[in-house]
């Protein structure tokens, strides 16, 4: 069996996903066959695997870090929230139904078997498996049925690294408290800590690191510095800047900026679609939650949604629906992606996702949408704006009628076209279109022309795949330079050290 370890976090967004990606990159560069694994992810950011399954986007990024294609084995259970109390359950890439928080507990035993069998298979096939926990391992109200954190670590006998985000403040309390809330058998697997997003002189941390080791009997295996350029493939839209800005906007190559407003829907899915736009010099991408943020936008994007009808109702209640219509009425470009495309239609018939039946869309595109019971999962190719494109599809809604005067967005070989363009309004079910460099530049030229931004010039040299690969390499570098990599290798080879103390140990006095 290959070695395995679990990266747990003191909170959501503490750095689990990026640390796992960095460890996978570093191990792969050492020549090891390494695979990522997340037993249970809760996210509406997902991708389609080559065999037609669906997994969390973070695990696809971690697979890329390991030099692998995404696989349903890397994320056997995916929960896609469609409301505050219900989620769609995807098991080994296929949706099996909807659950509430309470009904999901009843399925945990069955899902645990799937999780453990999948992890065992990976450990047989790979030299190392780096597992990512979910949320915090100290959700003590959920511990009895846990399959993603300490429950997984106990079942597999895996050592655990706990990562905390120092940029949020209180990292020592988070790390100590996480350990202290675990029962002794769980504590015995926690082998050490990692501190993430540190700004400043590491020497300032040294007294705290020594005291944390004295209090817990466990070392801090590394302090990862804050790096401004790490922002691609955020786990969810809330990971972006507080002001809603996506990425690190760079000065334009021409005389003008192109300003993009992306509506942050309550159940937004695949928010990462717009990250390739934000990687372009002179393109300023910002999420918007109220109408005034659309007032100075050149391009408005209505992104994907896991709850199309509900989020459409939210658009109307917030005034954003009228703001989108007004933007289009001025001849300015609007793009709908997946659920956003469906919202731009004339009519939506949804007996599946919301059970709302027939509801009017925004009426900006002359198409009708009907939801099918089976989800479309595909990785198609075609041509758009004169360039070869590839993308992926994850949706229940289907175009059942399209107006005769609509122009296809994507031409598909041997089948009906995909998506539509009508004046300055476009829609598509495809995710990932902007990752196609030539298409992205052509689309930006089209949007700039519609918006009257003659001084905007798309950069001819931005390669999005290379930008993502550079970020993965940077993560591997951070692991190599700032983690005790010898200790990590020992954990993979030998498991958690024996004799780790349980808390409270009769803590020694703090140093002055």
Automatic annotation (TrEMBL):
GO terms for biological process: cobalamin biosynthetic process. It holds the Pfam family GATase_3. The active site is at 338 (nucleophile), 431. SUPFAM superfamilies: Class I glutamine amidotransferase-like, P-loop containing nucleoside triphosphate hydrolases. It comes from the Bacteria. Transmembrane segments: none annotated. Keywords: Cobalamin biosynthesis, Glutamine amidotransferase. Catalyzes amidations at positions B, D, E, and G on adenosylcobyrinic A,C-diamide. NH(2) groups are provided by glutamine, and one molecule of ATP is hydrogenolyzed for each amidation. Belongs to the CobB/CobQ family. CobQ subfamily. This is Cobyric acid synthase.
């Amino acid at each position: 069996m290959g070695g395995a370890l679990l990266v747990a976090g003191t909170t959501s967004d503490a750095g689990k996903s990026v640390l796992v990606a960095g460890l996978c990159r570093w191990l792969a560069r050492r020549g090891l066959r390494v695979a990522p694994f997340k037993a249970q992810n809760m996210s509406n950011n997902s991708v389609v695997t080559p065999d037609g399954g669906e997994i969390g986007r973070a695990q696809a990024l971690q697979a890329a870090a390991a030099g692998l294609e995404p696989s349903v084995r890397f994320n056997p259970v995916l929960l896609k929230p469609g409301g505050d109390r219900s989620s769609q359950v995807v098991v080994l890439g296929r949706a099996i139904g909807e659950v509430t928080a309470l009904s999901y507990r009843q399925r945990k035993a069955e899902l645990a078997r799937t999780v453990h069998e999948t992890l065992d298979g990976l450990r047989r096939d790979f030299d190392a498996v780096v597992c990512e926990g979910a949320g915090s391992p100290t959700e003590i109200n959920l511990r009895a049925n846990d399959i993603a954190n300490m429950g997984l670590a106990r079942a597999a006998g895996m050592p655990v690294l706990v990562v905390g985000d120092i940029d949020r403040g209180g990292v020592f309390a988070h790390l100590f408290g996480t350990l202290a809330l675990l029962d002794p058998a769980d504590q015995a697997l926690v082998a050490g800590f990692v501190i993430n997003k540190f700004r400043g002189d590491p020497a300032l941390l040294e007294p705290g690191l020594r005291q944390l080791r004295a209090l817990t009997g466990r070392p801090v295996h590394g302090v990862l510095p804050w790096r401004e350029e790490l922002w691609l493939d955020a786990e969810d839209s809330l990971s972006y800047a507080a002001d809603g800005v996506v990425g690190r906007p760079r000065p334009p190559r021409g005389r003008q900026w192109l300003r993009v407003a992306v509506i942050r829907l309550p159940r937004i899915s695949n928010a990462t679609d717009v990250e390739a736009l934000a990687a372009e010099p002179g393109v300023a991408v910002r999420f918007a939650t109220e109408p005034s943020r659309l007032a100075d936008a050149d391009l408005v994007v209505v992104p994907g949604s896991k709850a199309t009808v509900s989020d459409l109702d939210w658009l109307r209640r917030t005034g954003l629906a009228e703001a989108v219509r007004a933007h289009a009425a001025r001849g300015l470009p609007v793009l709908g992606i997946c659920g956003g495309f469906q919202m731009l239609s004339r009519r939506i018939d949804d007996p599946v996702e919301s059970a709302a039946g027939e509801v009017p869309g925004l009426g900006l595109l002359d198409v009708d949408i009907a939801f099918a019971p089976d989800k479309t999962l595909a990785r198609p190719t075609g041509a758009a704006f004169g360039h070869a494109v590839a993308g992926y599809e994850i949706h229940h809604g289907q175009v059942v009628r399209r107006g005769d005067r609509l122009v296809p967005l994507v031409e598909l070989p041997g089948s009906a076209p995909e998506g539509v363009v009508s004046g300055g309004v476009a829609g598509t079910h495809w995710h990932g279109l902007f990752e196609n460099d030539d298409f992205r530049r052509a689309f930006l030229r089209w949007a700039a022309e519609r918006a009257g931004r003659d001084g905007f010039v798309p950069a001819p040299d931005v390669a999005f795949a290379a930008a993502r690969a550079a970020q993965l390499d940077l993560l591997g570098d951070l692991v190599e330079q700032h983690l005790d990599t010898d200790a990590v290798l020992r954990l993979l080879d030998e498991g958690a050290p024996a004799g780790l103390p349980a808390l409270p140990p009769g803590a020694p006095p703090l140093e002055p």
